[in-house]
Amino acid sequence: MSIAKKDYKRITVKTLVDMKAKGEKISMLTAYDYTMAKIVDGAGIDVILVGDSASNVMAGHETTLPITLDQMIYHASGVVRAIERSLVVVDLPFGSYQSDPKEALRSAIRIMKESGGHAVKLEGGYEIKESIKRILNAGIPVMGHLGLTPQSIYKFGTYTVRAKEEEEAQQLIENAKMLEKIGCFAIVLEKIPAKLAKEVADQLSIPIIGIGAGSGVDGQVLVLHDMLGMTHEFNPRFLRRYMNLFDDMTKAISSYVADVKSVEFPNESEQY
Ligand code: KIV
To answer: Fewer beta carbons below 10 Å: N end or C end of the chain?
Structure first.
């Protein structure tokens, strides 16, 4: 059900923290362009993530590493032009924040100034603490991202569940507490055991948004094209497909091809 215009009240980072305090779950989806973002925003989503998964979904790369800061700004600008209510969080892409805090701040400022996004997301913990602090000091809200962090795929070597062992789980808890302490407004936890994710959500007062992290967290995020069933090669256990747009679109396009070939399209009423 879409939200009536009069009911629009912009979501801010404070809204999300208040939602957690009230026990209200947070909904988040990715979007990478104007048309999709308009639908997602109108359907009442709380947060739109302009994820660097655009590298896979929109550009067909195998990983999220190749997408550039300019490309992220292009995607985010279209999304921002579409929205009336949702909070727009934009991923800082690989290579735009890891080398030093000054570069991280420059990249975050470019995202905010050139796309009009409302916050940035960075992957990692202690190793990027100074960069996150620098961005926060400039007044830019930061969402953290721990667990499976796809920008580090070549370090992990696999997309399997993270933090199953005690040592990595403890490290993740410490990183999450540190991110809260320095001022992040929320954290994404990706592909970790549900029990661990719930433990983090219970211990922190900022919202924990899960993807493959179970139901004990404060909100959920999915990649839009996956949950709409536009992609069909990717089948992780955590993915629920709400539609099968791949088949529906294939049927529609095949019908169009057939109609053009048989001159069924355009008909009398579809011409001047
Ligand atoms: O880029 C992305 O889509 C993400 C989500 C998977 C959380 O970071």
So the answer is: C
190 is catalytic: yes
Report yes or no on whether pTM surpasses 0.85.
yes
* CA-closest residue to ligand 1 atom 8: 51
Mutate to test the pocket of ligand 1, among 27, 30, 153 (most ligand atoms within 8 A of CB): 30
Residue pLDDT tens, the chain, 272 long: 555 555 568 999 999 999 999 999 999 999 999 999 999 999 999 999 999 999 999 999 999 999 999 999 999 999 999 999 999 999 999 999 999 999 999 999 999 999 999 999 999 999 999 999 999 999 999 999 999 999 999 999 999 999 999 999 999 999 999 999 999 999 999 999 999 999 999 999 999 999 999 999 999 999 999 999 999 888 999 999 999 999 999 999 999 999 999 999 999 999 99
CA distance 148 to 197: 12
- Residue closest via CA to ligand 1's atom 2 equals 51
Which residue range is the domain that position 41 belongs to?
Answer: 13-241
Tell how far the Cα of 52 is from the centroid of ligand 1, in angstroms: 6
Nearest alpha carbon to residue 127 among 158, 91, 101, 95: 101
E strand or H helix at 48: strand 47-50
Task: Report the nearest atom of ligand 1 relative to the CA of 190.
Answer: 7
DSSP 120: E
Domain at 51, CATH number: 3.20.20.60
Same-domain check for residues 176 and 198: yes
Minimal-distance CA residue to ligand 1 atom 4: 51
